């Protein structure tokens, strides 16, 4: 008995000792508490350097090399004195400019003057002045399940839409699809979002785009009487909730899984499409992502049907309106026979225009929403015009004839070999 007690005490003491030395999920000093225990909090841990200096070690979900999207988010208690927070990226580099969420207000960028970037971006120091309230600081806005659920509540009020749980993530979160089906036999556009958790700017674009398609204007009503949309806004709910840099909970990149559908998230979409009662198929595919710049990766230049260059024409027609709000973008032809990326899978499987809609990480949020609305409007105009022409011709040829585009819309730059693919 005595030996047992001694051993128990030894292990308790040893554990306590280890937990003090070890980097922590929560750091408390006599001035402030920092923690990560909330949706999107990520894998970071912290270390107390002194009572007014806490270091945050920004870590990915996997030890293997991963896409350089160093996601961080932390919660800071109120504090009465100035404190210093240090982001330590280890082998990675600072990418996302910190944003702060104050109670009862939206997200704001921190003040430039309070941020010092050192060691080629491997360390970032942020000053925080006394605050009477708890605050969240994050690489991008925390657009997690709650944000989607709030939006879904509005979507569910739309008479044009139905929703369905098409599967469950690795951690058993529902994968939710929405679809319009005024006439289930109408051709449909398939839209996906958030395969990659940190790609928050693309969530604003997807929301703006979809909201415009199902909007209350006559254009949207006409559109929804001739075409359907199916969209899955949140493909990787586990990654988003866990604050991952890239993967799902199985440490797999969902946008490299469209060949064998080994993950429940990608399989749920395939299974849903395969089991559509009317065997209808998508005629256009758009996958929303984020990267350093606004880019549209398109793959329809090689299509051997009437849909050739449909995407180019659409983007070209939208260019003037987009330039008025200073939405600068490039268009890149991107094609490969590998199906691993969703864009290629839908192109190859269905012979349809498919696009990766990449939004700049740092694009002004209101401009993202406005630009996506412009693109949605232009898309509806083109499709309704096509529909009318088809009716006139009394045959289903589909799309407008392709035309030569000015050179500036199409980047001839070869894909970068120095950066890993980002979409
Ligand atoms: Zn991506």
Side-by-side strand order of the widest sheet: 12-13-15-14-16-19-17-18
User: Hetero groups bound?
Assistant: zinc ion
Fraction of residues in helices? 25-40%
Structural class: alpha+beta
Number of helices: 9
CATH topology of the largest domain: Aminopeptidase
CATH architecture of the largest domain: 3-Layer(aba) Sandwich
Number of strands: 19
Give a verbal description of the structure:
This protein has 423 residues and is an alpha+beta fold. The chain folds into two domains: 29-138, Immunoglobulin-like; 145-409, Zn peptidases (Aminopeptidase, 3-Layer(aba) Sandwich), CATH 3.40.630.10. Helix content is 29%, strand content 23%. The strands form three sheets. The chain has an eight-stranded mixed sheet, sandwiched between helices. A six-stranded antiparallel sheet has the order 1-2-5-11-7-8, with no helix packed on it. A hairpin with a 5-residue loop joins strand 7 and strand 8. Helix 7 crosses helix 9 (365-393). The longest helix has 29 residues, at 365-393. Bound molecules: zinc ion. Zinc ion (ZN) is lined by residues 196, 199, 255, 289, 422-423.
Short description:
With 423 residues, the chain is an alpha+beta fold. The chain is built from nine helices and 19 strands.
């Amino acid at each position: 008995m005595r030996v047992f007690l001694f051993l128990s005490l030894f292990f308790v003491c040893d554990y306590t000792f280890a937990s003090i030395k070890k980097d922590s999920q929560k750091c408390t000093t006599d001035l402030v508490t920092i923690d990560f225990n909330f949706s999107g909090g990520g894998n970071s841990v912290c270390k107390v350097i002194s009572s007014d200096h806490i270091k945050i070690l920004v870590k990915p979900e996997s030890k293997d090399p991963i896409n350089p999207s160093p996601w961080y988010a932390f919660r800071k208690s109120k504090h009465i004195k100035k404190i210093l927070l240090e982001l330590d990226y280890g082998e990675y580099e600072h990418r996302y400019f910190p944003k702060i969420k104050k109670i009862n207000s939206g997200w704001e960028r921190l003040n430039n003057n309070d941020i010092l970037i050192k060691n080629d971006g491997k360390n970032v120091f942020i000053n925080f002045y006394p605050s009477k309230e708890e605050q969240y600081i994050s690489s991008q806005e925390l657009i997690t399940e709650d944000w989607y659920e709030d939006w879904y509540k509005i979507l569910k009020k739309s008479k044009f839409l139905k929703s369905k749980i098409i599967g469950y993530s690795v951690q058993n979160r529902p994968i939710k699809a929405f679809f319009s089906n005024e006439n289930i036999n109408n051709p449909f556009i398939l839209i996906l979002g958030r395969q990659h958790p940190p790609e928050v700017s693309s969530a604003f674009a997807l929301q703006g785009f979809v909201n415009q398609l199902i909007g209350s204007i006559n254009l949207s009503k006409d559109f929804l009487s001739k075409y359907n949309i199916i969209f899955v806004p949140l493909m990787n709910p586990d990654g988003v909730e866990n604050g991952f840099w890239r993967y799902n909970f199985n440490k797999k990149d969902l946008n490299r899984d469209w060949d064998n559908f080994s993950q429940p998230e990608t399989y749920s979409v395939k299974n849903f499409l395969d089991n559509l009662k009317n065997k209808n198929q998508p005629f256009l595919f758009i996958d929303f992502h984020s990267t350093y710049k606004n880019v549209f990766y398109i793959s329809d230049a090689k299509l051997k049907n009437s849909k050739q260059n449909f995407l180019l024409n659409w983007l070209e027609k939208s260019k003037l309106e987009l330039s008025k709000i200073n939405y600068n973008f490039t268009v890149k032809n991107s094609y490969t026979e590998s199906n691993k990326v969703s864009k290629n899978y839908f192109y190859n499987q269905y012979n349809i225009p498919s696009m990766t809609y990449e939004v700049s990480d740092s694009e002004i949020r209101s401009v993202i929403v406005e630009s996506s609305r412009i693109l949605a409007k232009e898309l509806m105009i083109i499709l309704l015009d096509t529909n009318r022409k088809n009716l006139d011709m009394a045959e289903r040829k589909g799309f407008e004839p392709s035309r030569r585009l000015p050179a500036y819309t199409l980047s001839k730059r070869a894909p970068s070999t120095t950066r890993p693919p980002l979409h």
